[in-house]
Amino acid sequence: MSSLAPHPYPLSARLRDVRGSAIRDLLTLTARADVLSLAGGLPAADLLPRTRIADATARALAAPGAVQYSETAGVAALREVVAAIESARTGRDIGTGDVVVTSGSQQALDLLARVTLDPGDDVVVEDPAYVGALQVFQAAGAVLHGVPVDTDGMDVDALELLLLGGLRPRLVHTVASFHNPRGVTLSQARRARLCALADRYGFLVVEDDPYGLIAFDGPPPVPIAAHGERVARLGSASKVLAPALRVGWLVAPPEVSAGVERLKQSTDLCGSALTQTVAAELLADTTWFDEHLRSLRTAYRSRARALTAALDDAFGDAVTRSTPTGGMFCWVEFRDGRDTGALLPRAVDHGVAFVPGAAFAVGTPRTSALRCSFAGYPEPVLRGAVLRLAAAAT
Amino acid sequence: MSSLAPHPYPLSARLRDVRGSAIRDLLTLTARADVLSLAGGLPAADLLPRTRIADATARALAAPGAVQYSETAGVAALREVVAAIESARTGRDIGTGDVVVTSGSQQALDLLARVTLDPGDDVVVEDPAYVGALQVFQAAGAVLHGVPVDTDGMDVDALELLLLGGLRPRLVHTVASFHNPRGVTLSQARRARLCALADRYGFLVVEDDPYGLIAFDGPPPVPIAAHGERVARLGSASKVLAPALRVGWLVAPPEVSAGVERLKQSTDLCGSALTQTVAAELLADTTWFDEHLRSLRTAYRSRARALTAALDDAFGDAVTRSTPTGGMFCWVEFRDGRDTGALLPRAVDHGVAFVPGAAFAVGTPRTSALRCSFAGYPEPVLRGAVLRLAAAAT
C-alpha cells in the first residue's frame, strides 16, 4: 500500500438537495433563557400528563415483554385502540391489521413517501407547507408542486387546474385540520372534492392529522378519509399525550400499509414496546383521555384567544392573521410587506422569536408572514411576547 | 366527475425488490407455545435488567423534559456516555458531537445507507450476511457483492481481489465481532488490512457492532475503528440493556454523521427523550453496568457451551459448527448437504425452530446450514431443543 489518494467520503447526490429544517436550526438559535419562543411546534410542557405516564410506565414494566423487541407494526393493544379511535373518527370499519404504528407521524410520512415514490415523481403540497413534509418528499426525490391555502384550507380549484393541465401527482399532502403553519381547516365540501379528484386522477391523499383532536369549538373535523378510499391517514400521540412516547400511526389502503410495514422492518425493526404499551393504556382509558383532551382544548383555546387579542391590540390593521379554531398555530402577515426574516434578529434582541413565513414557502415567497405558536405559554406570557414583538416591529 | 378509472395505488418500483425478512416471518410461524425457538435474535428475556430500568424510568420522569421532543442527535447525557464508551473502546478521542443516537443500530444503518448511497452504487457485504443489512442496502438501490466469511471473519483477500478487479464499492459492511449469523470474529490483522484497503480504494467500512461487548473470554475485540479513519461504527443498547429502549448509535466521519443527523430530522424528528435518559443513566453507572455485563457474559457463555456440547453429542461429525466466543449465535452445517429449508417444518413438528442458512445467503446458497441462537434459554432447555432437532433430523 503506497501513497494514499485523499478520497472524499461517500455521500448520496440526491440527499444534497434536501433543505435542513430552518425551524430546528432556529430553535437552537432562540433557545436562550431570556427569549420567549413562539417559534417551536412543541406541545405545552405544563399540559403533558407526566404523572399519568409515570403510573402507566411502572405498570407496563411489570411485564417482561415491555423491554423486549416487539412486532414491527406495533404492539397489539395499541393497534387495537388506534383502530377503534380511527373507526370512530372516520365512520369506517378500521381493523387492528389496518394500523401501522410508527415513531411519531413523521416516520409514517417518511416511510409512506419511500414506499410510494420513485425519484422524479410529482407530489402536490400545500403552499405554505409543513416543512417536515417538504424534507421527506425532497429526500424521496419528488418534484414538488405547491397549491395555495386560503381560509378554507387547500384551494382545491387550483389543484384541479393543475390536474386538468396534465399534472399526475402520486401524492397530495395536506395538513387539513388546524393547518401548520396557516392555522386554517379544509372545509368538508373541499374534502369531498379532494377525494373525488383522487379517484379520478389516481393519486393518494396524505391526510397528515396531528392536531385534529385539539378542536376548540365542538367535535374534531370529520377526516378526509371519511369521504373516500384513496387516503392515507397519519395520526400522532405527540400533541395529545407526549412527544417522547414516539407514537404515531398510519391507516392506509392495504397494499400501501403492507409496504410501509415491510420497509419499517429494515428501517428500525420495531418501535418501543414500553412507550407503545403506555400509549395504549392512556388512549384506551377513555374516561381519562376524554377529560385530558377537554382540558388541553380549553387551555389551548384560551391561549389562542389571548395571543390573537394581544396581536389585535398591538398591530390592529397593520397585519392580517388567522383565527385559530384548533391546533397550535397562528399565521400573521404584515400588510406593509415588511421582511419577517429581517425582523427576526431584532425580535430576538427584544426577547421574542417566531418562524418567518419564508421557511414554509414552496412557490410563493411569504416574506412578510410569520408563524406563532400559542401552545407553549400561559396567557400573560403570550401577551408579554406580543408586546416584545410589537416593540421590535416599530 | 364521471365514471372512475380503477387506478392502482402508487407504489415505488424500487421497493418491490426488497426481500422481506424471512426471519421475522419465521418468528411469526414459530411463535407457538410448544416450539422451542432457536430462530430469533432476541436477547434473553430473563437477563434484561427490568427492575433497574423501572427505577431509572421513574427517576427520568421527574423531569418535564423526559416527555417532550428532544434533540435529533440524541439527549446530551446519552451522547456523552456513548462518546466515553466509544473513546475507551477505540482508543480515539470521540466527542459528544461525534455521536448520533438512533432508534437501535438498525436505524443508524438505514440512515447511513440513504446518506451515502445512490441507486446503482456498489456495496460489499459478508456472505452469509446480516439480513437486516441486505434489506437496507436493497432499499437504497445498491448492487450487492458478497465476500465469504471464514473462521477469522470476512475474507479480506477475497475482498482485495474484487477491488483489484475494478470494483469500487462505496460501503463495505461487516458484523466483525461475533458475527451474525456465522458466530466468528474478524482477526485484528484483517481489521488493519480492511482499513488500509478503505484508505486506498476510498470506501467506508460499516462496522456493525451490536455484540462486541458480549465477549466470553476476555475483553471485547478491539474495534475496526481503532485501525483507521474510514469507519462508521454502529453500536446498540439492545443486546446489553434492552431492545425496547430503542437506543443505538453511529460514530462516523463528521461529513457522514452530519448527513445522518440531517436525514434523521425528516425521518422521525428525534428519538424518545425518556428511553434515552434511561439508557444514559444505566450506561453511565459503570459499577452497575460492568457487573451487569459480567453476568450477561457469564450466562451467555454457559448457554453457548451447553448448546455446542449438546450439538456435538447429538450430531458428532455429521455437522461442522462455529465455536462462539461471544454474541448470541452458533452456525451449523450438515456435511451430508441436506436441505435445512426442508428440515425446518419437520423440526417445528418436533417442537424446535432455527433459521435455515439460505435466509442469510448473498451468492453462496448455504442450503445445508442453519443458525441457532443460544441466548434465549437456560442450559437444560437448550439441551432439550437440540434433542428435538436431532430427532427431526434422523
Automatic annotation (TrEMBL), chains A, B:
<dbReference type="InterPro" id="IPR004839">
    <property type="entry name" value="Aminotransferase_I/II_large"/>
</dbReference>
<dbReference type="InterPro" id="IPR015421">
    <property type="entry name" value="PyrdxlP-dep_Trfase_major"/>
</dbReference>
<dbReference type="InterPro" id="IPR015422">
    <property type="entry name" value="PyrdxlP-dep_Trfase_small"/>
</dbReference>
<feature type="domain" description="Aminotransferase class I/classII large">
    <location>
        <begin position="36"/>
        <end position="386"/>
    </location>
</feature>
<protein>
    <submittedName>
        <fullName>Aminotransferase</fullName>
    </submittedName>
</protein>
<dbReference type="GO" id="GO:1901605">
    <property type="term" value="P:alpha-amino acid metabolic process"/>
</dbReference>
<dbReference type="GO" id="GO:0008483">
    <property type="term" value="F:transaminase activity"/>
</dbReference>
<dbReference type="InterPro" id="IPR015424">
    <property type="entry name" value="PyrdxlP-dep_Trfase"/>
</dbReference>
<keyword id="KW-0663">Pyridoxal phosphate</keyword>
<dbReference type="InterPro" id="IPR050859">
    <property type="entry name" value="Class-I_PLP-dep_aminotransf"/>
</dbReference>
<dbReference type="GO" id="GO:0030170">
    <property type="term" value="F:pyridoxal phosphate binding"/>
</dbReference>
<keyword id="KW-0808">Transferase</keyword>
<comment type="subunit">
    <text>Homodimer.</text>
</comment>
<keyword id="KW-0032">Aminotransferase</keyword>
<dbReference type="Pfam" id="PF00155">
    <property type="entry name" value="Aminotran_1_2"/>
</dbReference>
<comment type="similarity">
    <text>Belongs to the class-I pyridoxal-phosphate-dependent aminotransferase family.</text>
</comment>
